[in-house]
Description:
The structure is a single chain. The model is unreliable at about 1-20 and about 145-150 (pLDDT under 50). The protein is elongated. The protein is built from 4 helices and 11 strands, in the order E-E-E-E-E-H-E-H-E-E-E-H-E-H-E. By secondary structure, the chain is α+β, with helices and mostly antiparallel strands.
Amino acid sequence: MANFVALSGLISAHALRDSSPKPFCGHQIDGITTPGHVSALFLDLNCPLAGDAISSIDFASYGTQPTGSCGAFTKSTCYASNDTSIVTSACLGQASCRLWPNTTTFGDPCFGTQKFLYVQARCRSGPGTAVPGCDASQGHCSGPSPGPSPSPGPAPSPLDINVSVFWSEVAGSGPLSTEPSLQVVAHALLMRDSPLHDTLFTQLQQLQAKRVRYVPWLPTPLLGVAELEPPTATDTYWNFSLLDEHFLDVCEFRAYVAAIAPENKISH
């Protein structure tokens, strides 16, 4: 058995070499660790003898690390359903092939989890090799260490959390209560020339919200910014007409609600 190590120990692979076509194995990490970067890590399978070719893919797994060792791998609970077919299609019958362990090639079988590509293959006539590497011209070369070869471990125990709610009990110094609150966002449909203006403000009054927040939102600039043009040496460009119309209508409906429930408040 020969061991191959590359990228300062970040990547490892191994191959069984023999005069008979025994299986050879290798693995490579999915090196995408930074958003916006593309992994350039790869795993090369080779049949060095002239005229030889890969005759079978005995095992392929893209996902979390499998258990076992070369010749006796077992897939983990997270692996791409198409990993074997992709590796077989790329490598079977070829003297060599290059595999790219990433979610673009295999999909994402378990989002947010570090993934690896493990392959066990055979050449038709002689020993094969599995060599990991990185092509910096294709993307991002660094990645976390894949760590030691996997070994079976105990399954994590489930975390049980029980939550009990007692609505009849008092929290703090006073009884629990539910009250309506409202955020009014500046919008053209709330302007006085809108066909919906009267209906909308009537419904806002009927809601009788205890707390109202008024937001002059910037997607409608004239309702949020009073001076859209910078001043010059002789002129300014202040225009509060649209802002005032909006805000006065909001204050008017709040005054109506406050007359009914004086404790109600407005913020802006």
